[in-house]
UniProtKB/TrEMBL annotation:
This is Pseudouridine synthase. One of its GO terms (biological process) is enzyme-directed rRNA pseudouridine synthesis. It comes from the Bacteria. CDD domains: PseudoU_synth_RsuA_like (cd02870), S4 (cd00165). It comes from Weissella cibaria. GO terms for cellular component: cytosol.
Length: 255
């Protein structure tokens, strides 16, 4: 059965569907030896598809892995500075890529897959997947500052030399512990967006520098049983729950 070219590319693990569309527009994709630039192009299972001269296998097995990302590792498939990447840790025969990113010094839950369709959905703001972060911050936030986070704060981030200002969506925010001697606090934030340096900038907007940051949960996936640098394949029911957009239910202690 004929399917859209970008969908087949995403299913083959080339990239997310959106990134696959850009590869098509850039003229890097050929079907049966002819360059294709039209996004509506449909292909048959028997068609030969190549990306930058390399054939893809649309029958590639879809795989899903959960990594406890350690500090000092970059969330990219390669790094021009020679730093260790998450791909150096997840040593599997299938070509996978990270869903979203965690900063170099941020630890915690990271999903990797070759399922471009699911990756694209999970990263889209409309999917509203919960991401739970635990931050050690300088100073002890006041109730007023926590309320600011709960109503949404305006943050300014810099990426690739450009500044972007946006209002973060309301977050669930609570202090889980304080250290009056060191004048620090542990703050748990639940957000569903994934802007660059978002949690750090949100805390900065209310006057608190983030000293350490961990993503504790992504949807219903948590770090149970995984030490930093360890990873495991997702169970079938976890994959299905992700596809259904299920979240963790605190009251029930399950998803």
């Amino acid at each position: 059965m004929a399917e859209r070219l970008q969908k087949v590319m995403a299913q083959a693990g080339v990239a997310s569907r959106r990134a696959s569309e850009q590869l098509i527009l850039d003229g890097k994709v050929t079907v049966n030896g002819k360059t294709v630039r039209e996004l509506g192009t449909k292909v048959e299972p028997s068609d030969k598809i190549e990306v930058s001269g390399e054939p893809i296998d649309s029958r590639e097995k879809l795989v899903y892995f959960l990594l406890n990302k350690p500090r000092g590792v970059v969330t990219t498939t390669n790094d021009d500075k020679g730093r260790q990447t998450v791909m150096d840790i997840v040593d599997e025969p299938e070509r996978v890529y990270p869903v979203g990113r965690l900063d170099y010094d941020t630890t915690g839950v990271l999903l990797l897959t070759n399922d471009g369709d699911l990756a694209n959905r999970l990263m889209h703001p409309s999917y509203r997947i919960d991401k739970v972060y635990v931050a050690k911050v300088k100073g002890i936030p006041t109730n007023e500052q926590l309320e600011q986070l709960r109503h949404g704060v305006t943050v300014r981030t810099k990426q690739n030399g450009r500044y972007t200002t946006f209002k973060a969506a309301p977050a669930r925010a609570e202090i889980t512990s304080t250290n009056t001697k060191n004048h620090t606090a542990i703050v748990k934030l639940t957000i569903h967006e994934g802007k660059y340096h978002q949690v750090k900038e949100m805390m900065k907007a209310v006057g608190h520098e983030v000293l350490k940051l961990t993503r504790e949960r992504y949807g219903m996936l948590d770090l149970a049983g995984l030490t930093p640098g360890e990873y495991r394949p997702l169970r079938y029911e976890e994959v299905q729950a992700l596809k259904a957009g299920k979240q963790y239910r605190k009251s029930a202690g399950r998803w």
